[in-house]
Every structure is written in C-alpha cells, then in structure tokens.
Amino acid sequence: MSRPGGFEAAFCGVTLIGCRARRDSVKYRVVLERDPESGHTVATVPGLPGLFVDAETEEEALKLAKEGIVFYLEELGKAAPKGRARAAPAKVVTVDV
User: Fold this and answer.
1) Measuring CA to CA, how many Å separate 91 from each of 17, 29, 65, 75?
2) Domain count of the fold of the chain
3) Deepest in the core among 11, 43, 73, 94, taking most CB within 10 A?
C-alpha cells in the first residue's frame, strides 16, 4: 500500500517508507510478475538483492520500484566507507549463441 507523499516497499524483510529524488540517472532491470493468489503485481530488481514491491497494478508496481531503487541506492551510499570509491552498477548485455 502506498502512503501519501511517499511509498512503502519491502527491503530485506524491512518495510521502507519515504524517498528522495536523485539527480543522475541509472538504468535498472525490473521484473514484473503476477501473483496468482492475490492478483497483484510483484516487481523485483535483480541488480539490487532484497528489493521487491507488491502493488495492485503494473503501473503502481513500476512507480514503487523506481522509488525503492532510489531509496536503496541512497542507503547503500550512506553505508559506503568514507574515502573509498563506490562500485559502478553492473552492465547487462544480451549475447547470441
């Protein structure tokens, strides 16, 4: 369920509420799956372990996933040791075999 002025998403079993916008842009793959029992859409982000959202529609799931990605990266940045470079996001490519 979304809260006014923010979002709610699960991250490693903890509910996250709130989000701030980022200035730079990075692309992440979001996987959308329909839960057959609830009919809700579950969105996961393979590049960010533990990040998933549950929403009534695909549109809402994508919106919450975007907000969750921003929050995840902000929290990851806070946990990075001072003076050390942060790892760049992984690059996903498709190859023909």
Assistant:
1) 28, 10, 19, 21
2) 1
3) 43
